Amino acid sequence: MTVLDAHELYRFYHNGDEEVLALRGVSLSVKAGETVVVVGPSGSGKSTLLACIAGLDDPDGGVVTVLGKRMTRRPERERAALRAAHVGLVMQSGNLIDGLSVEDNVRFQRALARDRLDRGGVEDLLTFVGLSERRHTRPGELSGGEYARAAFAAALVNEPALLLADEPTGEVDAEAERALLDLLDRRRVAGGSALVVTHSEALTSRADRVIRLHDGRILDG
Ligand SMILES: Nc1ncnc2c1ncn2[C@@H]1O[C@H](COP(=O)(O)OP(=O)(O)O)[C@@H](O)[C@H]1O
Ligand SMILES: [Mg+2]
Questions:
Q1: Ramachandran angles phi, psi of 96, nearest 5°
Q2: Which helix (H) or strand (E) holds 29?
Q3: Which of 125, 132, 141, 193 is the most buried (most CB within 10 A)?
Q4: Which residues contact 149 (CB under 8 A, 6 or more apart)?
Q5: What would the pLDDT profile of 121-174 be if each residue is shown by its tens digit?
Q6: Are 196 and 147 in contact (CB under 8 A)?
Q7: pLDDT above 80: residue 119
Q8: Nearest bound ligand to CA 92?
Q9: Residue with the nearest Cα to atom 16 of ligand 1?
Q10: 3-state DSSP call for residue 46?
């Protein structure tokens, strides 16, 4: 089953006279249970690609479907609803609400997609990522590794069909990276799909597939 299909995505930015071709016809798909890693140099379009797939941004051309439902060229509200129902998102920053504790951040994400898990589900997830002792802590007081694990817990609490993560191991230590790898393995076993932008060799070595982006295009091979 195809969970994500991105077809011929184009995204252009304009700064005065300058035109930046951030995505130039990117197509990819991710099946159920697949973990796909995206690599590429800085500025190659990785974050733009994830934003277009997540429906945070709308591409200038091309179509994204998640579980057969079109994400592109729909009103913001419909994109948000589709995202809440099927997509877990870990961006490079701004994943957690500063005024809420770790636990309330996770519960808030769950509330966005309506109550689907019982209280035990949240506790189990916080324990799995090793944050049960830090559940009442505010995001600003977490270490980089703890923050990343909390962001993943918030992204995964609704058991989304598709997890999107943008350099999730960028600023975390080896221990936190292992926790994230364990989370991805657990998802894979449960049939969840993931599309992850990363420089981590450990993560890349566990991927089913690696996609290389360069100047807004996918490199062959
Ligand atoms: N909001 C924006 N306005 C103008 N240019 C942008 C914007 N976002 C990204 N870009 C440009 O698009 C290209 C791809 O950026 P990005 O997707 O962030 O790459 P990556 O995540 O691979 O580093 C870069 O040249 C970047 O400068
Ligand atoms: Mg980026």
A1: -120, 150
A2: strand 18-31
A3: 193
A4: 129, 130, 131, 176, 179, 180
A5: 888 889 988 899 999 999 999 988 899 899 999 999 888 999 999 988 777 778
A6: no
A7: no
A8: 2
A9: 45
A10: helix
Nearest ligand to the C-alpha atom of residue 9: 1
Domain residues of the chain, as ranges? 32-55+75-219
The pLDDT of residue 178: 84
Compute, in angstroms, the gap from residue 195 CA to the centroid of ligand 2: 14
Class of domain 32-55+75-219 (CATH, top level): alpha beta
User: For the chain, what is the HEC assignment?
Assistant: CEEEEEEEEEEEEEECCEEEEEEEEEEEEEECCCEEEEECCCCCCHHHHHHHHHCCCCCCEEEEEECCEECCCCCHHHHHHHHHHHEEEECCCCCCCCCCCHHHHHHHHHHHCCCCCCHHHHHHHHHHCCCHHHCCCCHHHCCHHHHHHHHHHHHHCCCCCEEEEECCCCCCCHHHHHHHHHHHHHHHHCCCEEEEECCCHHHHHCCCEEEEEECCEEECC
Q: What is the pLDDT of residue 121?
A: 81
H-run or E-run covering 213:
strand 209-214
State which ligand 1 atom lies nearest to the alpha carbon of 197.
21
